[in-house]
Amino acid sequence: MSLEALRGTRIIDFTWVLAGPMATKMLAMMGAEVIKIETSLRPEFTRRGGHYPIVNNSKKSIAVNITTAGGQDLIRRLAKISDVVIENFADGVLRKYGLAYEHLRQLRPDLLFVSGSGVGRSGPDKDTLAYGTLLQAYSGRMSMIGPINPRLQRVGLTGWTDPVTAMWETVIILAALRHRKRTGEGGYFDVSMLEGTVALLPDALLREALGQPSDVHDGNWERDASPAGVFHANGFDQWISVSVRTDAQWRGLCGLIERPDLLDRVEFNDVPGRLAAKDGLNAILAAWVKDQDATDAEAALLAAGVPAARARHTGEVVVDPHLAARDVFKTMPDGSLTNGLPWRDTSGWRGVVERAPDLGQDSDYVFRKVLGLGRTEIDALIESGAIC
Q1: Is 207 left (phi over 0), alpha (psi -120 to 50) or beta?
Q2: Which of 71, 111, 159, 375 is least enclosed, having the fewest CB within 10 Å?
């Protein structure tokens, strides 16, 4: 079967960068007709390289200048026959052009309007411009990563907040559509990337609220496991993560690294004892790992019943045989790769995956078939600059 649950749902998509487009891509792959509002007058829309073709699959694109009266009228006409509007402009942009929720709901009372922003559309910091890495700092997540480890050869911190926000936005829209089907009610949803990030830190926040010690340690620290961490293997930028949590795993590790003497140490016979000696046990494991090939060490640890994972480069992930067998990545007609939905049904279906649109490629379809405009009216809108 194919779970095209959103077939017949139309979404007006004003989003750009990552968070919003990642959400609308998932909705489009579930069958929604996602119409991106773009314009040739802004460089962020004319550039179609980078991440654009990966986060905009299966969508349609129209070229509209919303600063013009004609462009605003086109959006209003489209809003009358659409189910969802999603945007992530700076606060007040759509309101300035008469296209905010309070305007569009007059045209369609059951409209669902999702507004994404860095820190929310209200509060003292609402006008703050923010990107993912900045919001990770604001949320407190960076404090959990710990101080710089001078032994690291490379380290990067990506915009984790964007895909997290995309998942929240997807869930919100799916839930709101279900609610509307039952009640007929539309609504406005204010999505904060900051709050979406904070929501995924419950354990740390609870401990702070209870006055318990903070989880701020170095990047190799892990609660309730010893030895545990990310250890440097033989070779440049080769790392392996290991986490020993049970007595059986401890015995498997000692056998693998040929340290039966550690099993004779009474203080290491249980988890509390090993946690108390974590630094020393980590040093013993690090000394063994540093002479090992990361791939071989991963296989050996797993065979010994010890949880372990080699750090993989993204280039390895896209050719990983396990992921290939599960058809995670799709090859597009131009030879590029993209990903389908992050789940599959019993047939292996991962959504409707089509190439990302060229700028304005669906303008004729939307204006003529969806809105029912004639050639003369379309030509006049092009002449006025409303379609551009």
Answers
A1: alpha
A2: 375
